[in-house]
Design a protein that fits this description.
The protein is mainly alpha-helical and about 120 residues long. The chain has helices spanning about 15, 25-35, 45-50, 55-65, 70-85, 90-105, 110-115.
Length: about 120
């Protein structure tokens, strides 16, 4: 059973506020639809990550965390990790918690400060 309503915030924000649990098919389908409709330029593994490839999602998240990412890049990486973690991948869960510790407060206020 879901622990949040699908209308609470953008699906790209769910990774920030939702603990991965075995989500129902509706949540995973929503994440897959959104992530599958976006291209991450310069990242050839993105489409695999968006389909639930945990190794690609973890790699992308680590690259994002190591750089100076945009809020969108953070949300895309976090959303791919949430999808993989909710499907039971333990490496994606660890990477999701790492991304949260690093960026959970990175939002509109931080975006304004950075001039992005």
């Amino acid at each position: 059973m879901m622990s949040f309503a699908l209308t609470e915030g953008s699906p790209l924000q769910w990774w920030r506020q939702t603990e991965p649990k075995p989500h129902d098919a509706t949540v995973n389908a929503a994440l897959r639809a959104i992530l599958g409709g976006v291209a991450m330029l310069g990242e050839p593994g993105w489409h695999a990550a968006a389909r639930g490839d945990a190794a690609k999602a973890v790699r992308i998240a680590l690259l994002v965390a190591a750089g100076r990412p945009t809020p969108l890049a953070i949300d895309l990486a976090g959303s791919a990790l949430l999808l993989c973690a909710s499907e039971g991948n333990p490496a994606a869960l660890v990477a999701l918690h790492h991304l949260r510790r690093r960026f959970v407060s990175f939002g509109p206020a931080d975006n304004a400060k950075s001039g992005a």
